[in-house]
Amino acid sequence: QVQLVESGGGLVQPGGSLRLSCAASGSIASIYAMEWHRQAPGNLRGLVARITNGGGTYYADSVKGRFTISRDNAKRTVYLQMNNLKPEDTAVYYCFGGSWGQGTQVTVSS
Fold first, then answer.
1. Please, is 93 exposed, middle or buried when counting C-beta atoms within 10 Å of its C-beta (0-12, 13-18, 19+)?
2. What are phi and psi of 62, to 5 degrees?
3. Could you say which residues of the chain have pLDDT below 70?
4. CA 22 from chain center: how many Å?
5. What is the pLDDT of residue 110?
6. Whole-angstrom Cα distance, residue 71 to residue 51?
7. Which of 12, 23, 80, 82 fits 16 for a cystine, CB–CB 3.0-4.6 Å?
8. Could you tell me what percentage of the chain is helix, strand and coil, using 3-state DSSP and rounding each to the nearest 5?
9. What pLDDT, on a 0 to 100 scale, did the predictor assign at position 42?
10. Contacts of 67 (CB under 8 A, 6+ apart)
11. 27 contacts 6 by C-beta, under 8 angstroms
12. Contacts of 75 (CB under 8 A, 6+ apart)
């Protein structure tokens, strides 16, 4: 299993954007699906977006049209571009690819 390290979280105003990165310690080319999940206080961790190694994508209804997942196998990195952020997007965001990263906090507040 590769080790995953997320980065790019922070505090942003509603309507703003952030790009999260998930850097892997080894190759992700053979990992069929890389995913982003999030967990808000008091809530269960839930799937936000998934990308397969063929480029197929899935998005939770709550983020469709606002978030874009991508992967760069050569750089061993998965990205989550988040636009038009809303307060309800506030959560710890986790990368998953057979193992979990430590998470990165995203806070959307004015």
1. buried
2. -70, -15
3. none
4. 7
5. 96
6. 7
7. 12
8. 5, 50, 45
9. 93
10. 48, 49, 59, 80, 81, 82, 83
11. no
12. none
